[in-house]
Amino acid sequence: MTPHDDPFPPDEGGLTHAMMIAALNQILAECGYDPVPEEDEPAPADAPADRLIEDARHRADGIVAAALETAVQYTDAALDQAARTVLSARRTLAPLPAAAGPLEPARQPVPGARGQSLGDMWFAAAAAAGVYLPIAEDAATRTLEAYANCLRVATQASPPDLEAAYQVGVEVVALGVSRPEALPASMTLLLDHLSDGDSVPRPARQVAGAFAAGFAAAVQARTLAQQESLHRATQRAAREFQSALQHSEARYHRLAYYDPVTGLANKACLGQRLRQSANGDDPARHVGLCLIDLGGLVAVGEQFGADAADHVLTEVARRLQRVARHPDYLLARHSAHTFALLVQDSGGLAHLAELAERLTRELAEPASLPGTGLTAPLHAAVGVVDVPTAGLDVTRVLLDAEIALRQARAGTTGWAAYDPLPAGPGRSRTATGVSGLVTGPPSYQPVVRLGTGLVAGLHARMAWRHPHLGTLDLTRIGQLTGDRDTTTRLAGSFLRQACRQAMTWDGGRKGPFIGLELPVHQIGYPDIADLVREALADSGLPPRRLHLHLSGLDAVPAGEHSHTVLTALAALGVRLELDDFGTGHSSLPYLRELPLYGLRTPAGLLRSPATGPDADRDLLTGMARVAHALGLTLTVHGVDDEGVQARLAGTGVDGAQGLRYGPPTTPHQVPALLRGPAPLAAVVDRRVAS
After folding, report:
1. Which residues contact 34 (CB under 8 A, 6 or more apart)?
2. What confidence tens digit (pLDDT) does each residue in 496-520 have?
3. What is the DSSP letter of 422?
4. Are 285 and 22 in contact (CB under 8 A)?
5. Beta strand 338-346 pairing with 286-294
6. Whole-prediction pTM value?
7. Positive or negative torsion for Cα 665, 668, 669, 672
């Protein structure tokens, strides 16, 4: 389903526009006010998401404004009515001439039967004024009769009890006689009740005035209480409307820009973020895109149904989220079986290549199919694009990612970077161009023989600078390009340069060895053997002085081919050392079958916080015994601090390499290293031995 196909179905049980109006009108009805009229029909459901969100916001703002306007209108009207009531009471209490007769009420009821009580007449007058009392008529008449007697008692007191009369006015309103129209009729009856014949004495007028004042104050307080209640109800309705608007807007936004199956951003959100990235002003800023394809997902849907396919998609999204944790990353579902990882601040193709490798590793394991006990292989492929944000074309970026993805499907590495150059006869279609490589100066770091402190050899390293990929070594160049010819050519140049340089330091057979890291598995047989043979013949370096440091991948069991490559190299007389012993493929029976000279292990094995110096020393002692039992040497590399250096003494380790024995140096500084022992090594050995 696309983001615009029926994007906003109505929520069951949620607040709708009609329900908001009904809630407001119910509040107004409870306060005795007219309802708010209905608004026009809302926008059609098939309108774009932005229009629906704007329409919802406009309608909610209109509802809140109408509620506030109604509250102000009714509050002003109530206060005006209360003011008129007070003025009416004051006019009623004005001094009356002695000859004046009883006041005629505005809506005076017709007198009842002979012997009718004052309570009956007061109840009838209130009813004629539109008052409804929520109690029985008998109880109401008795109560009003009691109030009238209280007023008579207040009149007869000396001085008149005006406070009691005021309280009677308040209680009459509390009883329910609260309409302002009922005051004139009530005053007429009470003045007749309190008068002495045709004249109204001053105490009677004072008591009647206090009663009218209490009545007016109670009506005004009641009006203010209603106004406050309406104000609070309006505020509550406004909060509910705002909350409903926020939930609706968030829901519309999520349906418009997020995938309902995986919860990830969808293609519309991805395009929006790409357009935002194109607005950057920094010409050096790049944006990267990894397009991830899931092969086999269609087959899962066809064989096990849509629910199983959605389960696989959810599991894939969960795995990808483990990689895309950085705030600059946006993980999105691009299509039915492809995902996209947007890197909004890319560090170049080397950065994206590392991401692509992590993504393929996360998707290497099959996905489980619930209820079947089976798993589905994913066959993930990743297409990578890196472009500057200046002048970014969203359509072009997505198209280039599709091209790179097709190249990744056709390749064997699982991923490919988009290459704008056309493929030629001698150029691999899946290769990333490495034109513009600048060869850096080689560096040599001493490898010290423990016990004597003498420099036994030099570990050589070579790096190449690429304008976009950064600093690369041979292994990384091979991974990024997939071009075996380029890797072989660069490895041969490095090998010949190192061998010739070694001969300039000491041409004898007892000179220091040269250790090199070559991607043997990328170059393969017989090319690697030919490179070594030509370098030895060209330089005249004795073969035993050339040490090749093999990674775990170089020595991993891969049938007869791997054994053939290593055997051919050993037959030339060079010495092979397995690097990172103890961290990768370290099968002891397999080590006995390889033509190895020594083992190399990283000092990082000794930096676990759970182990102390004694445990680390015991570990090194055991590893040295294993190496010696196999007829091999053991060298620890990466010894950069004094603590690790101190743990090497007395363990049987043959050699060490790291900053504690000397930093990487240029070829011209090497002769000074060969003149004597490494001072730090001798000092530490003597201190530990003592």
Report:
1. 28
2. 988 988 888 876 667 889 999 888 7
3. P
4. no
5. antiparallel
6. 0.45
7. positive
